[in-house]
Design a protein that fits this description.
heterodimer; A: 482 residues; mainly alpha; globular; B: 496 residues; 73% helix
Chain lengths: 482, 496
């Protein structure tokens, strides 16, 4: 089932490859259809998922590099299930969103997105460390091209390079660590590695090597510079994918690999992670306040939210970890929706600077509704998905460290500050007629893009149990090892 | 009756023998034919190139069907084993690719010397003999055959001062390094009285490198290594490489980047892993320094280059550094990684050089020279653009393309020998080198062109070649076992 899910977008790519470049609408339709199929198909994973088992499900096994004992081992458990669905969902949203805004290299654009879809499914479902690394890294190529080719300004070059090189330099250390593990144990199968114990010194070094790679991807604070750049310069869909799912690869990696392979080192380095996360929460929230670019605000706020996630993961209790999983999912919906909202403005007026926008409620009521809703969701308003996640995370961290909880909670207040102030500046006040004279509200396509996200956010906020139930046993199984 | 060719020795080197005879026949044929006034002094470039391609194909088949495996012939001076056969077949295939590329190149660049393909074949002959040599004297003679033809090849464009300069430079420096090599060989001979690898190995079994009487052998070893590093264009001895790469005709540059290096690698493996292995502490240190410095020079030197050929020259130096990592580690895994790396490297070099060779502007039929010229390629010839991007992503070592796997095995062998310093330097330099490989993609795709230049239509042979290699680079991921087991079997032969 999983291999079929992986192959589906690739079949779509083959179809797109044979369509001539000038048949633009056909290319778009094929891409959209492929992504819809993939999304619907991935929903079946959830439907047939056995909640009463903590084991990996839908296991598939292919011979890949048998001489080196590296096999293509696929499987899904409660932790990775929702990431797969999230990635197929967001790719579908992205393809629908870029219906009119992309003009050049149309074919390659859709190929890049479908390729990313396939790679993401592999990253979240593969149970072999080497293959995980390979696809963790492979996503750089399509994303680099998306930022560089379809980005908006000349600064995109810097952004694309930063994105590429930061991630590469981090993850190559993970590669060395993987080789070391392989050399010591003779296997790269995650489930076998999970049963083995490294010596304490080894664990510390290996954990650090993994952490460098994942923290660049999350991003943790000292290495977060690439994120605002990449977000600002990428096209809207690129930002959506980047914020919605690529950042989650880092936290997923922390949760899946660092925590369960190196439990001793994870506990040993918890203060480090807490410190970095707290700095991230407070520092980036304060930085957000003084940004003038709409996309940069959302980019910095996602750094703060991802810091919540890392706090939650390193609480090592059920509340914290499940809460962080919920934040990851909800951040996947909310930040994507906010980027889409910014994209709506950018498509119309080709600027993202706040000073050109004011009083949009008077002319774009429907848009304002969505913007306010997602801003509220972003600050963790009760009834929206991020409230459920942040609440659980804070409860979890209260168990392990009250100071951290206190400091992290200030992040929520600061989050409220920048979100509300942003709404205030963009949506309310007098209408600026000096710069922009024509306003149009969102059209039906944009409504179709934003509504499912709104629905998901509300659903997760009101009834999070349906998301927590499949992940419950897997998470408790993971925590038992620590 | 004891007919000469019934002798097993001659049958075992049938491929080389066939090549020698054919080269002579073609030389005679073309000299007579092109000076004949009866046929109006025909230009034989295309004709001879095609003939050479056919000959090399036949040699290739003779080589892979060589039934004498694991024999040492001609008074213990030549060895035929499955490892050598594997490497030889790769050398031959890459030579065929080079000749295919040269067909149109020679026409456009007005190289009307039929000697080109003959010289290429003679170099290949040198490489083949070098790969199977098992004696210091044979080795030296084979290396000289290979290098002499290379000197002439680099000066092939007689009316270009760059090419002449390159040829002269290469000749003087190469002769110098050959002197070193010969001196090292004679030192070793003087102190041991043996030139045969096997005898050397037997003599040196259990010898401690700190033992005082071995100084002569160690100095000889060092001389041989220096000469090897020079010919391999590793870093402290790399200064000739960018100039000669730039000055030589591009087709010759492509040839230099690919073929002679493989032969040298095998020579090194045979000499140092078979016979001088007990002395590995002194030579390992030298290789370590050479490896680190060539990785650093290769990656930092290429950043500022604006000419594509110089960039590729520096990238070749960097790749040599990676190969030296494997030589430093001297284990079975590292030999494995080395062979794997060189095979993938050959593929990527053929692809990149043929891309370089085939893009010509329509107005003046000139090649593109600067990286900036690539701006136009992705817009007017999207398929070439895609091939460019994939090839350079692969050279940069980004998964899931084949280039990543070559680096992966290399670093794995380094880690398994606890060479952490080397692997960390390797990783950092590979990130730096990513920067300039990405720049090619960036120039091709991200930048707006200022003027529209139309490019010439690409000819069929090269486009088939490039598309095949690009496809191989992409789909290598799907079934890597094929090549892995293929190499593994032949490596086992070398190691046992």
């Amino acid at each position: 089932m999983l291999s079929l899910l992986i192959i589906l977008p690739i079949i779509g790519i083959f179809f797109i490859l044979v369509i001539p470049e000038y048949k633009t609408s056909l290319i778009k339709q094929v891409a959209l259809l492929t992504s819809i199929f993939t999304f619907v198909f991935s929903l079946f994973l959830w439907i047939f998922f056995d909640n009463s088992s903590s084991k990996f499900q839908y296991i598939e096994h292919f011979d890949w590099m048998s001489l080196f004992n590296i096999h293509f081992f696929l499987g899904v458990d409660g932790i990775s299930l929702f990431f797969i669905i999230l990635s197929t969902f967001l790719v579908f949203i992205c393809i629908l969103n870029s219906w009119t805004s992309i003009k050049k290299y149309l074919k390659k654009y859709y190929i890049c997105f479908l390729l990313m879809n396939s790679f993401l499914i592999i990253v979240f479902s593969v149970l072999d460390v080497v293959i995980f690394y390979i696809f963790f890294e492979s996503i750089l190529i399509p994303m680099f091209l998306v930022i560089g080719v379809w980005g908006s300004r000349t600064r995109k070059l810097k952004a694309a390079y930063q994105f590429f090189l930061y991630t590469l330099i981090g993850s190559l250390f993970m590669l060395l660590a993987i080789f070391y593990m392989f050399f010591e144990t003779g296997t790269t199968d995650f489930q076998i590695l999970n049963t083995l114990v490294f010596s304490e010194k080894e664990e510390l070094i290996l954990w650090l090597a993994f952490f460098v790679s994942f923290s660049v991807k999350v991003p943790m604070v000292p290495v977060h510079i690439w994120l605002p750049e990449a977000h600002v310069e990428a096209p809207t869909s690129g930002s959506v994918i980047l914020a919605g799912i690529l950042l989650k690869m880092g936290t997923y990696g922390l949760l899946r690999f660092s925590l369960s392979l190196f439990p001793y080192a994870s506990i040993y380095f918890t203060p480090l992670v807490y410190t970095l996360s707290i700095i991230a929460v407070i520092y980036t929230s304060l930085t957000t306040l003084r940004q003038i670019d709409l996309k940069k605000i959302i980019a910095y706020s996602s750094v703060a939210h991802m810091a919540f996630v890392t706090i939650g993961i390193f609480t090592f209790n059920l509340y914290g970890v499940q809460g962080s999983l919920l934040i990851m999912l909800s951040h996947g919906f909310i930040s994507s929706a906010l980027f889409l909202c910014v994209g709506v403005l950018y498509d119309r007026h080709h600027t993202r600077l706040i000073k050109y926008y004011s009083g949009l409620t008077q002319v774009m009521p429907l848009y304002s509704f969505f913007f306010v809703f997602f801003s509220m969701a972003n600050l963790g308003f009760p009834g929206t998905s991020s409230f459920a996640g942040e609440f659980l995370t804070l409860v979890g961290s209260f168990h392990s460290n009250t100071v951290v909880t206190f400091l992290a909670s200030t992040g929520m207040i600061l989050g409220a500050c920048y979100s509300l102030w942003l709404c205030n500046r963009v949506l309310f006040g007098p209408l600026t007629v000096n710069y922009i004279t024509q306003y149009t509200d969102i059209n039906s396509r944009e409504l179709a893009v934003l509504t499912p996200l709104l629905f998901c956010t509300l659903w997760m906020g009101i009834y999070p149990e349906i998301f927590l139930e499949p992940m419950h046993l897997s998470v408790s199984n993971l925590l038992q090892k620590i | 009756m004891n007919f000469l060719f019934v002798n097993n020795d001659w049958i075992s080197i049938l491929p080389e023998l066939f090549l020698v005879i054919c080269v002579n026949i073609i030389l005679v044929y073309s000299v007579i034919y092109c000076t004949s006034s009866l046929f109006d002094f025909p230009l034989l470039v295309n004709n001879v190139s095609w003939l050479s391609i056919q000959i090399l194909i036949i040699v290739f088949f003779l080589n892979i069907n060589n039934y004498c495996c694991n024999v040492i012939i001609f008074n213990n001076s030549i060895i035929i084993d499955s490892f050598g056969i594997l490497i030889k077949s790769f050398v031959l295939v890459s030579a065929i690719c080079i000749l295919l590329m040269s067909l149109k190149y020679n026409r456009f660049e007005l190289i009307n010397n039929f000697e080109f393909s003959i010289l290429i074949m003679l170099t290949i002959l040198g490489s083949l003999l070098l790969i199977s040599s098992y004696d210091l004297v044979t080795m030296y003679l084979a290396i000289e055959l290979q290098s002499f033809c290379s000197y002439i090849l680099s000066a092939l464009k007689r009316n270009s001062e760059f090419s002449t300069e390159a040829g002269l430079k290469y000749f003087i420096l190469g002769a110098f390094s050959s002197g070193f090599l010969l001196f090292g060989c004679s030192l070793i001979y003087g102190f041991t009285g043996a030139t045969n690898y096997e005898q050397l190995a037997l003599l040196l079994v259990g010898v401690d490198h700190s033992y005082i009487n071995n100084n002569g052998i160690i100095i000889g070893t060092v001389f041989i290594i220096i000469s090897f590093l020079f010919k391999f264009s590793a870093a402290p001895f790399h200064l000739w490489a960018p100039d000669i790469y730039e000055g030589s005709p591009t087709i010759v540059t492509a040839f230099f980047a690919i073929v002679p290096k493989i032969g040298l690698l095998v020579f090194f493996l045979r000499l140092f892993f078979d016979s001088l292995y007990t002395l590995f502490i002194p030579w390992q240190a030298i290789l370590l320094i050479a490896s680190v410095s060539s990785m650093i020079v290769g990656s930092l030197g290429a950043i500022w280059q604006i000419k594509l050929k110089r960039l590729l020259a520096f990238s070749a130096i960097g790749h040599v550094g990676y190969m030296l990592i494997a030589l430093c580690c001297c284990s079975i895994e590292s030999i494995y990684a080395l062979i794997f790396y060189s095979i993938i490297y050959i593929m990527m070099s053929i692809s990149s050089f043929s891309l370089l060779l085939m893009i010509r502007k329509n107005e003046n039929l000139k090649k593109i020279k600067y990286i900036e010229d690539l701006t136009i390629v992705a817009k007017t010839n999207p398929f070439i653009g895609v091939c460019f991007a994939i090839t350079f992503f692969s050279i940069a070592g980004i998964p899931p393309l084949a280039g990543f796997f070559s680096k992966m095995f290399l670093f794995f062998s380094a880690i398994s020998q606890s060479a952490y310093f080397l692997s960390i330097v390797g990783i950092l330099t590979s990130v730096i080198s990513c920067f300039y490989y990405l720049r090619i993609v960036q120039v091709a795709y991200f930048e707006q062109q200022s003027s529209w230049i139309t490019l010439k239509k690409v000819d069929k042979e090269i486009s088939v070649l490039i598309s095949t290699i690009t496809l191989m680079l992409i789909i290598f991921f799907v079934h890597p076992n094929f090549l892995i087991i293929f190499i593994h079997n032949s490596i086992l032969d070398l190691c046992i």
